[in-house]
Amino acid sequence: MIDPLFFPGGDIGKLAVCGTANDVAISGAIPRYLSCGFILEEGLPMETLAAVVSSMAHTAREAGIAIVTGDTKVVQRGAADKLFINTAGMGAIPADIHWGAQQLAVGDVLLVSGTLGCHGGDHP
């Protein structure tokens, strides 16, 4: 959850686009396409939504990413905290990059940061 929606250097929309682009890029692909879903709390000012959408469009355009689909739901006041954005991205792996398990060789080093497979909840 992002609160406030706007902060020095960015906003929830820019963060949504950049975060998903980063997820695609760290997998070895060049981010190309993005989907986004909005959950809006009833009463969210249209100016707020317009500013977030404009920021997302600008950020995606700068990164060469097309926002290709989306969905919007409005929920009753109090059922959400202002605005939620869900994004998913797709990219293209450059033809000159050959990676995967078949590329591993004896003596290669695998670097791991943090605990594998733990996403939230209680973990060591």
Number of helices: 2
Q: Which class in CATH terms?
A: Alpha Beta
Percent in helix: 25-40%
Q: Got a strand count?
A: 5
CATH topology group: 60s Ribosomal Protein L30, Chain: A
Shape: elongated
Q: What would you call the quaternary organization?
A: single chain
Give the low-pLDDT segments.
none
Mean pLDDT metric: 92
Distance between the termini: 24 Å
Overall number of structural domains: 1
The CATH level-2 architecture is identified as: 2-Layer Sandwich
Kindly report the name of the CATH homologous superfamily. Answer: PurM-like, N-terminal domain
What structural class do you assign from the helix and strand content?
alpha+beta
The largest pleated sheet is described as: 3 strands, mixed
SSE topology string: EEHEHEE
CA-atom Rg in angstroms? 18 Å
Cross-sheet strand order for the largest sheet: 4-3-5
In terms of DSSP E residues, the strand content is 25-35%
